[in-house]
């Protein structure tokens, strides 16, 4: 109790010895204290949520309704909801689908991925969740991963992918790498309260607070959240902030950016053109007729009677030769379509997304042409892999440390799946040529697209086969020796 109480006092909380509960500290928390960190990180997280929400809405197609005159808006609500075409989602998916982690290589001497690390990675379903994690980073600018030791099995540390709206990391002043504090927060499904976990100074602080009401200014009113059998604050067994940021398009100021941040205006222009086209279709895309010199008949109440009804099996007959009938020119929708296509091309150029993704017009082309159209996207993906890979490498290091691995982890690197799409014939031809230059077979298998598990299996089978050959088991490689028939003595009549 003395140790726990000492930690509580260091955290700025008073302990009520009679009731054994924690009492909120008096006054405003000082810089560096746990509550100061919680309030600071919470405030910054709320700002980031607004950005992430906008990016996520555009990705899912929930764009702001196109702008039209206020008087016309009530009458066109149905058309407004239909006048949104989601090209932003295609831009994100075109990049994210080529970001795939195949494994991790530890040290320059390793030819294949590290088996132990890949075992931990798969045990946490990160071979699947990392795809979601990278897609979120491309979509909203960043995602996170949380690493923790496993109390039930020390050989399987826990790794979870975290959303950008529920996690945030603070770095040391002047640094974009060294993590100073981390905050993980979410709304508890059972109580409706906000649960928050702060990682700072080698300790773990857990808080809870009622969800603030709409319009409330300032951070929530935090109070300690104690867990049965766990000290408060608890010791951080990793001694570093176990929350790792996975940034997309980071800059030197530490900010990360979504892939669609600078094309939202183009998407809005496309939606505006769509509503204009749909309004033209609704009212002026079909030919309107006119008539002069004709006196419209009326009924007994003086109401006009419409004598002409258009149909495929009806004929209009007008006996008065002075009556003239004509029709207005239909509205040409081609300019609207050309305008949309032009904006889509601007979006494709800005995001380096191939035309076949956005326009769907590319057909009957050879492999070289297809490769050229995708060169910009491939180059962009390779550029994105570097900062995204740095975060994933840090996650892998923490996981190995949590598992008690004492190897040198400084040379750890991510093995990315080749983002370039090539036909099977082209790929085989390229691999055969590379093999003549002495490229190791594992590198060729990796370039082929085999997973690290497959490469390890192929390598083991090849080594076993080579061992059998060296041991004299030639038949295992080339098949059994042919049996030469031997004739019995005297069968040819020449035996003595």
Give a description of the structure:
The protein is an alpha+beta fold. It has helices spanning 2-10, 34-60, 77-82, 88-96, 115-123, 126-140, 264-283, 334-351, 355-358, 367-402, 424-436, 441-448, 452-470, 475-478; strands at residues 14-16, 21-23, 101-106, 142-148, 158-162, 167-171, 179-187, 194-200, 203-209, 223-224, 234-235, 243-247, 289-292, 324-327, 412-416. A hairpin with a 7-residue loop joins strand 6 (167-171) and strand 7. The N and C termini lie far apart (107 Å). Residues 1-11 have low confidence and may be disordered.
Number of helices: 14
Task: State the helicity in percent bands.
Answer: 25-40%
Taken in chain order, the helices and strands follow as HEEHHHEHHEEEEEEEEEHEEHHHEHHHH
Q: Globular, elongated, flat, extended or rod-shaped: what is the shape?
A: flat
Largest sheet: 6 strands, antiparallel
Give average pLDDT, whole number: 81
Low confidence ranges: 1-11
Cα-atom radius of gyration: 35 Å
- Taken as a percent bin, the fraction of beta residues is 5-15%
Tell me the number of strands: 15
Structural class: alpha+beta
The first-to-last residue Cα distance is 107 Å
């Amino acid at each position: 109790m003395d140790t726990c109480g000492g930690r509580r006092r260091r955290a700025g909380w008073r302990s009520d010895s009679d009731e054994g509960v924690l009492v909120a500290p008096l006054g405003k928390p000082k810089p560096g204290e746990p509550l100061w960190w919680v309030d600071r990180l919470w405030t910054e997280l709320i700002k980031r949520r607004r950005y992430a929400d906008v990016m996520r809405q555009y990705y899912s197609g929930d764009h702001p309704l196109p702008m039209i005159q206020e008087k016309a808006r009530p009458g066109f609500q149905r058309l407004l909801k239909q006048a949104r075409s989601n090209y932003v989602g295609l831009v994100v998916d075109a990049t994210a689908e080529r970001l795939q982690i195949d494994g991790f290589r530890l040290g320059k001497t390793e030819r294949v991925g590290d088996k132990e690390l890949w075992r931990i990675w798969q045990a946490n379903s990160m071979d699947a969740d990392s795809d979601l994690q990278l897609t979120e980073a491309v979509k909203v600018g960043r995602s996170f991963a949380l690493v923790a030791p496993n109390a039930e099995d020390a050989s399987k540390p826990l790794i979870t992918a975290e959303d950008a709206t529920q996690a945030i990391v603070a770095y040391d002043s002047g640094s974009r790498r060294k993590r100073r504090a981390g905050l993980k927060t979410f709304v508890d499904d059972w109580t409706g309260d906000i649960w928050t976990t702060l990682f700072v100074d080698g300790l773990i602080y857990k808080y809870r607070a009622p969800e603030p009401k709409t319009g409330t200014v300032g951070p929530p009113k935090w109070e300690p959240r104690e867990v049965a059998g766990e000290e408060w604050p608890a010791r951080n067994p990793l001694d570093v902030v176990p929350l790792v940021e996975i940034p997309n398009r980071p800059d030197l100021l530490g900010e990360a950016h979504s892939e669609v941040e600078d094309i939202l205006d183009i998407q809005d222009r496309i939606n505006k053109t769509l509503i204009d086209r749909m309004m033209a279709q609704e009212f002026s895309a079909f030919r309107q007729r006119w008539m002069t010199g004709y006196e419209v008949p009326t009924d007994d109440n003086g109401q006009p009677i419409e004598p002409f009804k258009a149909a495929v099996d009806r004929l209009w007959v007008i006996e008065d030769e002075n009556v003239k009938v004509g029709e207005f020119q239909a509205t040409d929708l081609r300019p609207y379509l050309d305008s949309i296509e032009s904006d889509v091309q601007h979006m494709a150029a800005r995001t380096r997304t191939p035309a076949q993704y956005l326009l769907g017009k590319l057909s009957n082309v050879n492999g070289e042409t297809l490769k050229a159209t995708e060169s910009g996207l491939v180059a962009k993906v390779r550029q994105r892999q570097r900062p995204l890979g740095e975060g994933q490498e840090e996650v892998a290091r923490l996981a190995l440390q949590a598992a008690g691995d004492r190897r040198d982890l400084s040379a750890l690197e991510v093995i990315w799946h080749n983002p370039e799409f090539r036909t099977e014939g082209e790929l085989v031809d390229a691999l055969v040529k590379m093999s003549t230059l002495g490229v190791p077979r594992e590198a060729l298998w990796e370039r082929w697209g085999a997973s690290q598990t497959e490469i390890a299996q192929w390598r083991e089978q090849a080594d076993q086969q080579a061992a059998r050959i060296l041991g004299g088991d030639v038949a295992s490689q080339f098949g059994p020796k042919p049996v030469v028939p031997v004739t019995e003595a005297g069968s040819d009549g020449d035996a003595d």
